[in-house]
Q: What sequence folds into this?
DNA sequence: CTTGTGTTATAGCATAGATATAACAAAAGA
DNA sequence: TCTTTTGTTATATCTATGCTATAACACAAG
């Protein structure tokens, strides 16, 4: 999976890497059990320092997206332990999005439709449930 | 409207203030044309430096939530000029939320329901549209 | 035994966040 | 007119964060 950094972005490099991995998992381009390149190799590919990648991997591990194995490096492994805490953080961020949307006169139905489009764009196989 | 700072949060103080104002507008507790306390007064109330408040106000102005007037201070005024740019930023943030939600096995309908609950919690008068 | 892994430690540099004074022009109010 | 208050700008200092650089460690693979 191709990952690229935007060195002109105001977003921290390790956050960019973290987000791209999460998007990769959501798109199912990074599958459960798959290994990410090692810290040093990924750093070399991205043109970034080793510690920056390490920080991203540690953050992904902290939030339950990968498991770090000395043998296989960072292995995609979405953890559902402490899921309530993760979900809480996600919804907390969602709340600010909704507040901004209301201020900008985005209707509830439009907002839900955007969520639906984004959701299906990530995982098109989902019908409903 | 009561605004409080969390000095133990990892979120920047000026971002906290900014977000609380946005939430206040979404809840219609801060109404169009209403004035926020002056930079110095707000700083005194929050126990924060003047420049921190100034930075928050400038950020709110930048994103079209207030207009800064030398006579009346920061006046709530949700601007819909350059709305497309604002909406784009909101949706960009939304995309990461959706990606995380998918990874954590949150279904589309659950996500939409949460959006609905949050939306109605902010503006209960909205029926549909 | 060599190599590569995650991990930790230390250091240096640049930027951002927060504070502290100070000053300015413009408008309000007495 | 005079004083006060407003937003705004300019420095300066301090701390924390992000990024880089170099080095070293324990552990496992080959």
A:
């Amino acid at each position: 999976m191709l990952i690229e950094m935007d060195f002109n972005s105001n977003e921290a490099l390790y956050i960019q890497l973290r987000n791209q991995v999460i998007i990769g998992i959501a798109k199912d381009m990074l599958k459960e059990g798959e290994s990410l390149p090692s810290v040093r190799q990924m750093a070399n590919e991205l043109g970034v320092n080793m510690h920056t990648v390490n920080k991203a991997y540690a953050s992904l591990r902290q939030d339950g997206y990968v498991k770090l194995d000395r043998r296989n490096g960072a292995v995609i492994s979405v953890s559902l332990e402490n899921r309530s805490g993760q979900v809480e953080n996600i919804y907390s961020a969602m709340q600010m999005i909704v507040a901004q949307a209301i201020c900008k006169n985005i209707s509830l139905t439009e907002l839900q439709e955007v969520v639906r489009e984004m959701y299906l764009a990530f995982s098109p196989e989902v019908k409903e449930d």
Notes: Chain A has a mean pLDDT of 93.
